[in-house]
Amino acid sequence: MGNFWLFVVMSILLIILPGPDTGLATQNTIAHGKKGGFQTVFGITTGLVVHTLAAVFGLSAILVKSAVLFSVFKYVGAVYLIYLGLTSIWALKKNKGTEQEEQQSKYKHKSPFRQGLLTNLLNPKVAVFFLTFLPQFLSAGTKPFLQFLLMGATYTVLTILWFILYVSFINYIRTWMKKPSTQRAIQGISGIVLVAFGIKLAFEKAPS
Fold it and tell me: DSSP secondary structure string, 129-174?
């Protein structure tokens, strides 16, 4: 893979762009602390591993080529993101002015890992990304299987490293972010972002 380092640089630039994963990691770190943030990251990266293996074994190609499957995953993923966003906004309105203990209890039965996992698995854009971005860095004379595996693993590791830094930073300033006014603003913004990404995903066209 002669373009490996170019792939690394491009991957880093793509990973740090804000997206639904970032909004979810922010929200869960504020609500659950570093543990919740890392559980979200673990869920996100588990989803990336599944997409990597799907791309390696050709399952993503089937998803991308099937308009029906793409639409099913697209709408289910969009509904899930919108659900997470609206839940956050509704909880903000419902719990306005409550004590910190009550605010923590509303997240008690929610799984940050499951949220991170489903957000990735139900997003067909991730499958499209793996099949459109990774092939640009394939080198002739080497088996695509091994190259896809290496690039997918590299992208996953870079994602983990970035979110470890990000979650640690959010947790570091969590005391400030846990102030009622700040938390309401962050929770509201996170909810709106998740809803916006859900709507954007719903109108995403299947690749031709």
Answer: HHHHHGGGG--TTS-HHHHHHHHHHHHHHHHHHHHHHHHHHHHHTH
